[in-house]
Backbone:
């Protein structure tokens, strides 16, 4: 065969392969689209249930049942967490992980109205869009399983049902259980008010409750016989606020008083304050945490009360991965097709009018290139990223300018923009997993970057060595002495 004819044959094979791959992409996107009606129904249901961390019984079961009915091998109650599960399809390598969350936030009960309107009888709301997060990842996983069933992809897709991201450190316990030890790459996404994919880190965080036990007495007739647990909380908070002046520049510390007494004429015998402390470095967080504990010890000493420290664990800073982030950014940029539907324009404008920093509505169709800018939030995905190459992206599902953890974010959760964003996220995830399963070089590059960033540093969680998942952290009140 002549060199010319051989070249023509090679070119033909290449073009046929590219054509087949393009057809597979079309089929994959079509599969996601076909799942969208069921996905949107499930997302709205999880939005309405609005179950807080470790109490997402119905939400977890809905997703696990959906995946199981789609042919996935499901393991429920993993890592000692009733609402955590894994769902797996396929066999062999590579093993690609898709993360899915579904917990709601307390204090954010809200209807889908463009004004503040709590839902009667409901305390929580999907203020971080996790009702979309878990569903979109499941849609991507199911669409990929169909390609695998048809023999077009080889490997294993594993969905992780991840409860209690909001303060409960759910993924930390999955990592500690070794559930990611055979994973090649882990992918995640998140709803937001912008579209982003970048090589970004986040803040490490420790959560802790300081419970004080004092002595009750009549606040007017016998105040000298009382020892106020609330006074201990106030001393702790005063000391902690003085400590702020002497913390590193990027540190963050915030608290809420969760128990403070019931009647002004009774010296409170029980009180509790709940703290988060954060910094871009987990090592700095460890140091700041010890200083914060001393503030609470000072509160107990000054008020002659007994201190109980309830460490609810912590999460590491997110370890970025440049090759994965760059690839996700290209996928998101290529597939971005979001726009606010005409029938929801008035709703969007009314919500926009309630925002302190509104952005142009047209920006839902644009990419915000954040690069390596630090994400000042925290996520338990950080712990996953220290044991396996990990990357994620954000899709605009809220009116531009909407802050997370707000009633406006909850209100946006049932809009058509949220539905569009969920579908886009599922398509980006599915196509990226296909890229990984058919491109060993991309996985190798991600692994190389992971090894470069971790160096000789071993995974060292911020939880205590024998700490168990705080399954009741959304229910806790100071206990009786």
Residues:
């Amino acid at each position: 065969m002549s060199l010319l004819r051989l070249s023509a044959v090679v070119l033909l094979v290449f073009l046929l392969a590219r054509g087949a791959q393009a057809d597979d992409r079309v089929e994959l996107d079509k599969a996601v689209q076909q799942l969208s009606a069921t996905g949107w129904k499930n997302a709205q249901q999880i939005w309405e249930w609005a179950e807080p961390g470790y109490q997402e019984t119905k939400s977890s079961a809905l997703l696990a049942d959906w995946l199981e009915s789609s042919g996935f091998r499901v393991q429920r109650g993993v890592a000692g967490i009733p609402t955590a599960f894994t769902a797996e399809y396929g066999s062999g390598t590579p093993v690609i992980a898709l993360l899915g969350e579904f917990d709601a936030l307390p204090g954010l009960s809200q209807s889908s109205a463009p004004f503040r309107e709590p839902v009667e009888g409901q305390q929580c709301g999907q203020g971080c869009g996790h009702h979309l997060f878990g569903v979109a990842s499941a849609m991507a996983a199911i669409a990929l399983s169909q390609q695998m069933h048809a023999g077009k992809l080889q490997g294993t897709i594993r969905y992780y049902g991840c409860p209690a991201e909001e303060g409960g450190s759910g993924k930390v316990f999955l990592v500690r259980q070794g559930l990611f030890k055979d994973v090649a790459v882990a992918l995640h996404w998140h709803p937001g008010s912008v579209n982003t994919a970048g090589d970004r880190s986040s803040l490490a965080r420790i959560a802790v409750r300081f419970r004080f036990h004092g002595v009750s007495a009549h606040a007017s007739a016998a105040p000298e016989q009382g020892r106020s647990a609330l006074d201990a909380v106030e001393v702790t908070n005063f000391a902690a606020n003085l400590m702020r002046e002497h913390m590193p520049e990027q540190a963050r510390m915030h608290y809420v008083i969760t128990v403070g007494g019931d009647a002004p004429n009774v010296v409170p015998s029980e009180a509790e304050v709940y703290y988060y402390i954060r910094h871009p470095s987990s090592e700095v967080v460890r140091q700041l945490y010890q200083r914060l504990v001393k503030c609470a010890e000072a509160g107990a000493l000054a008020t002659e009360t007994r201190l109980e420290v309830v460490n609810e664990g912590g999460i590491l800073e997110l370890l970025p991965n440049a090759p994965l982030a760059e690839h996700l950014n290209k996928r998101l940029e290529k597939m971005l097709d979001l726009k606010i539907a005409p029938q929801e324009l008035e709703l969007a404008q009314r919500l926009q009018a309630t925002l302190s920093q509104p952005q142009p509505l047209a920006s839902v169709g644009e990419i915000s290139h954040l690069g390596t800018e630090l994400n000042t939030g925290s996520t338990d995905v950080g712990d996953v990223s220290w044991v396996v190459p990990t990357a994620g992206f954000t899709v605009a599902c809220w009116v531009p300018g909407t802050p997370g953890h707000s009633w406006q974010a909850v209100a946006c959760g049932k809009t058509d923009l949220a539905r569009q964003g969920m579908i886009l996220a599922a398509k980006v995830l599915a196509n990226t997993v296909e890229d990984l399963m058919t491109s060993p070089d991309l996985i190798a590059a991600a692994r190389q970057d992971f090894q470069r960033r971790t160096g000789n540093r071993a995974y060292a969680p911020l939880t205590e060595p024998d700490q168990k998942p705080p399954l009741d952290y959304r229910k806790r009140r100071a206990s009786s002495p």
Summary: Residues 3-49 form the longest helix (47 residues). The radius of gyration is 25 Å.
